[in-house]
Amino acid sequence: MDYNPLKMPCDWNVARKHALARRTAPDTKVHHDDDDDEEPRKPETCPCCGFEIERKEIPYCDDIKSLKFLGAGFPLFYNFLKFCILLLCLQSLVAIFNVLSNYHGEFCQQQTLNPISQQMEPNCQESIFLQLSIANKLNNSEVVVFIQKANLIMLIIMIILLQLFRRHQKKLDNQIDESQLTPSDYTIMVTNIPKTLNVNYRWELTNLFQNYAVSDNNFQITVTKVVLVYNITEILAEEAKIQTTLQKKKISLQTSNMNYDSQDVRDCEIEIETSQKRIKDLQDEYFWTNRQFSGIALVSFESEKMKDLILSQNTHTLFDKVKTFLYSGKTPGLDEMELQWQSQKLFLEQAPEPNDILWENLATLTQDKIIARIKGFFITLVFQGITYLIIYYLSIRCIRLVQNEELEKRRIGVDDKEKIKKIQIISFTIASTIVLVNKLLIEPLMKWITKVEKISTNTKFQISYANKLIIALFVNAAIVSYVIDILIFSNVYGFGGFMYNETLIFIMNAAIAPLIWLIDPMSLFRKLQRDHSVSKGNDSLLTQREANEIMEQIDYQLAMRYADIIKTMWLTFFFGTAIPLGVFSSLIGLSLFYLIDKYNLLRRRTVKENISQQLSWQMINMLEFVVLFNPLGNTAVSMFLNQKFDIYSAIGVIIGLSFQFLPIHRCVDAMFPVKNFEDPVSYKKAQIEFDTDYDRENPVTKEKAIAEYSLQLQGITQEKKVEYQIMHEDHY
């Protein structure tokens, strides 16, 4: 079937089939194994993406390992989320005693002289939030010390659990890797290849790796595929030109009452055909002449053992890469045994999955990436400062209102309940602003900044995005409130103070994220768009590609979920002792998050990237900061509440810092290694099970490779049909 992504009017049946192919469900593998008795059927694939259309829906209650077809990243994510819930359950044991002792405290009911109104008033405003906070037992130092001792014990338990969890995640990753064969199992990425040679790079690389990549001459290396990476700037420019012309075509269709024969529409179609032909010519030119070759190649081998052996015998250091960068690709002081090409050391590394690669960024020059990331860093600082000023302004308004109300009460007398009501409204506004700014402004902003950085894989993109987002969300939710309410105004438990506002942030943080994911406004909006477009039939102005996209579910953003979870964990362990109600809020919030998010993934999302396990390892590193933040938060709050040094929190800070700087998890890994018992399967046998491959994702070779893959599936199916017929003829 010839597929034209720019076809107008679009074929909605093709779009529906594409949506079925992109569901979050494994394909049914209707091309059966060799020993199956059932007659094989031809698997129908989507001409747009090459994915099989027939898929088997995963039951909601299935084990998280059933998500392995999406790559290791998703099972590891849900296991990570369950572990975070476990940590909160353990912290709740301390929080239960903390809440009960706070409830029976008496500090908030005690009265002191208000310096503004010059009247005797309770220490805290009348609120259940403050009654259940540590402020209500400031006059009971023995209980406070007991809580700090319990926190120190819990800190040691957390460190042990984090090490066990790392090991469990690695075991899970190994189990998934053993059961799920993917192209990256057989493939390495080669960089720093000389770019301007007039040679057949595929043949040269095949020869190089088969004859010179390993020291053992008796071990035969077999290269099965070489995919070159190109600078596709010219192709992207033509595609941008097509989009501009498409908009002109749509305007012409609207003004001509959907007359495809009008002169303006025909002129636009000629322009589009010219650009499409130009793209096709560029693809052929790049493929056959190596023009715009980026010096990067993806080389696949016949077995995983071959790949691992080559990687182990051809290592490099960061210093090697720096030297090469400074000498414009040349590597001075090369050993003759090192794999090289024209005095350029070839850098080998494990290849990412095909659909993990951001092909438009992979060929970006190192110096351009450095400049882009410096730019992204400063943009992040500027916008973080702007959000701080917004929250600061609202807090100033709250404090001034409190002072004005006190002066007004002193002059003519004002009802206390009316004053408290106004303060509560402003406190709610501050908490709502922080949570909504985080959700609606910070998340898309950090994603845009990360795009500026020209990162080469989705996994690295998600790591960078998640790291920025975690820090920004935590700073807004915790640090900004602490600085404004405590350091600037010294308002810890007074009217509209830190304890009250931060408790509201805890509650809203726990409620808003699950509520948003439950309502899922983006899916509702997509459905309205879809229904509206489909109702127009042939009068729709969508191209086939746009129709395919609108029929899909919305994309799943894994980094955003990780950031929400880790921000919640940091916030909870930072202020959980002072505000134990926050521990229970976070526990309920993350539990609801797990239930709703898993449903959304299985029924209301499309997953287009294969995120590697590297994202999970990085997020575990970020999670481990709770070991430091817990005693650090206790110290920061107690210094202002008790006006004295807390020895147990100080010990906790020392333990937390030691945990961050000492290579504890590396020592544990060395002492208790996780072994891989994967059975060897050849590339030739495994490739038919691949959902995608490097040539099917590469923008230069994609169309041709998808067509060849479809024919390959048909050929295999026909071969199996013949085997099936022979088997049954022998039987009868």
From TrEMBL:
Q: Which UniProt keywords apply?
A: Membrane, Transmembrane, Transmembrane helix
Q: Where is this region: Disordered?
A: 23-43
GO MF annotations in UniProt: calcium-activated cation channel activity
Question: What segments bear the compositional bias annotation Basic and acidic residues?
Answer: 24-43
Highest taxon listed in the record's lineage:
Eukaryota
User: Membrane-crossing residues?
Assistant: 76-97, 146-165, 377-396, 423-442, 469-492, 498-519, 570-595, 645-662
Domain (CSC1/OSCA1-like cytosolic): residue spans on this chain: 185-361
Pfam families assigned to the protein according to its UniProt record, in alphabetical order: PHM7_cyt
The terms describing its cellular component in GO are: plasma membrane
State whether keyword Nucleotide-binding applies: no
Q: What is this protein called?
A: CSC1/OSCA1-like cytosolic domain-containing protein
UniProt source species: Paramecium tetraurelia
